[in-house]
């Protein structure tokens, strides 16, 4: 089934086990991305992304280019902001990765976190726990308790994504009331 890559304007094939990973790898095949490319992929205005950098939600671009890790953080924040206040998103990401403008204290790379989130979101009905278990099996804990934090964050993010999808569905239903 084709669906939007969460937090982006891009579609991917979620029946292919590594569909999102393949798409993300292809985006960075030529190197890091310029702000205009990140803006196009995320659907966010460039000033929003620059504002998030200025506010310390992600590290600044290097030579005006954004890494896969930075794009993943942008897509995560964009996906979650439809149902959670920005302050809650920052708290959530800080809980698992410390200072958001400094990757040296991260317990998980944002690009890996994003792919795991997609795997949990795209799991077949009833398979979310199995998807989460597989992600956590792969994770190398940098300190005791890091895996528990990661599990909590993935559960919250997956729930927030489901809430955002339900919100869209409810709005579409409301919009359909006038059409009848």
Main attributes?
single chain; 180 residues; mainly alpha; two-stranded antiparallel ribbon; 8 helices; 59% helix; globular
Q: How is this structure best described in words?
A:
The protein has 180 residues and is mainly alpha-helical. It has one domain (2-177). The protein contains 8 helices and 4 strands; from the N terminus they run ββαβααβααααα. It has helices spanning 19-27, 35-42, 46-54, 68-80, 86-97, 110-121, 128-138, 146-177, and strands spanning 2-4, 11-13, 33-34, 65-66. The chain has a two-stranded antiparallel sheet. Strands 3-4 form a two-stranded antiparallel sheet. Strand 1 (2-4) and strand 2 (11-13) form a beta hairpin. Helix 5 runs antiparallel to helix 8 (146-177) and helix 6 (110-121) runs antiparallel to helix 7 (128-138). The longest helix is centred in the C-terminal third of the chain and has 32 residues, at 146-177. The chain is globular and about 50 Å long. 31% of the residues are buried.
Mean pLDDT: 91
N-to-C series of helices and strands: EEHEHHEHHHHH
- Structural class computed from helices and strand pairing: mainly alpha
Task: Please describe the biggest sheet, giving its number of strands, its sense, and whether it closes into a barrel.
Answer: 2 strands, antiparallel
Broad shape: globular
């Amino acid at each position: 089934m084709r669906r939007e890559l969460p937090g982006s304007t891009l579609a991917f094939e979620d029946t292919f086990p590594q569909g999102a990973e393949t798409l993300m790898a292809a985006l960075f095949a030529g190197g890091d991305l310029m702000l205009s490319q990140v803006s196009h992929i995320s659907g966010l205005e460039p000033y929003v992304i620059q504002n998030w950098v200025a506010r310390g939600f992600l590290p600044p671009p290097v030579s005006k280019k954004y890494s896969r890790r930075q794009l993943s953080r942008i897509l995560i924040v964009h996906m979650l902001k439809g149902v959670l206040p920005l302050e809650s998103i920052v708290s959530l990401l800080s809980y698992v990765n410390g200072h958001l403008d400094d990757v040296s204290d991260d317990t998980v790379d944002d690009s890996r976190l994003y792919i795991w989130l997609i795997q949990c979101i795209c799991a077949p009905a009833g398979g979310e726990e199995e998807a989460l278990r597989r992600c956590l099996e792969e994770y190398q804990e940098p300190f005791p308790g890091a895996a528990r934090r990661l599990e909590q964050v993935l559960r919250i993010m997956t729930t927030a994504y489901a809430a955002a999808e339900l919100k869209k569905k409810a709005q579409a239903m409301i919009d359909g009331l006038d059409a009848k």
